[in-house]
């Protein structure tokens, strides 16, 4: 058998590479069952902590900041749900990982908007921010990239 035939057989895409739900459940050892149960408990713990603090958040957060604050606090539930689903359904790992990354990206945008809202708008945010507001000289780029200078926030693009 030549090398190209061996490589072709190795790269052949089949549905047998990822186990079916029945194969997944039947192949679980007690250790894996314990880890899955621990993941479920941690998921329920994040939900419980969020819902216990929800009343405090609603009561203490100014109304104009409430929606973004609740959204930012809810990121942990979305990511933990995606992680738990990826444990239960092995074929959904890519989808769940994508959901987690998109959630972090969306919440980063919402956090910056919340900063700007707390400052009283873009103009006040720019006035209050110092010259080192966006320092790019952080690990791992702090030692090797001497040309990176801190950026001052501005409205120009």
Q: Any overview of this molecule?
A:
The structure is a single chain. The chain has helices at 3-10, 21-26, 30-60, 66-73, 75-88, 93-119, 122-128. It has 157 residues and is mainly α. It has a domain at 29-131. Helix 3 (30-60) runs antiparallel to helix 4 (66-73), helix 3 runs antiparallel to helix 5 (75-88) and helix 5 (75-88) runs antiparallel to helix 6 (93-119). The longest helix has 31 residues, at 30-60. The model has no long low-confidence stretch (mean pLDDT 81).
Count of beta strands: 0
Helix segment tally: 7
Low-confidence stretches: none
Q: Describe the sheet with the most strands.
A: none
Compute the average pLDDT.
Answer: 81
| Overall outline | extended
For the termini, the CA-CA separation is 59 Å
User: Based on helices, strands and strand pairing, what is the structural class?
Assistant: mainly alpha
| SS strand fraction | under 5%
Radius of gyration, Cα only, in angstroms?
23 Å
DSSP helix fraction: 55-70%
Order of helices and strands: HHHHHHH
């Amino acid at each position: 058998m030549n090398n190209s035939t061996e490589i072709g057989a190795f790269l052949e895409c089949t549905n047998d590479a990822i186990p079916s739900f029945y194969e997944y459940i039947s192949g679980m050892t007690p250790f894996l069952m314990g880890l899955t149960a621990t993941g479920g408990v941690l998921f329920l713990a994040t939900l419980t902590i969020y819902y216990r603090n929800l009343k405090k958040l609603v009561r203490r957060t100014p109304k104009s900041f409430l929606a973004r604050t609740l959204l930012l606090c809810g990121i942990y539930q979305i990511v933990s749900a995606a992680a738990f689903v990826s444990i239960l359904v092995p074929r959904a790992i890519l989808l769940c990982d994508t959901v987690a990354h998109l959630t972090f990206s969306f919440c980063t945008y919402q956090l910056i908007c919340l900063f700007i809202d707390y400052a009283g708008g873009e103009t006040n945010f720019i006035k209050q921010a110092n010259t080192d507001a966006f320092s790019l000289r952080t690990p791992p780029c702090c030692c090797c990239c001497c040309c990176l200078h801190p950026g001052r926030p501005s409205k120009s693009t």
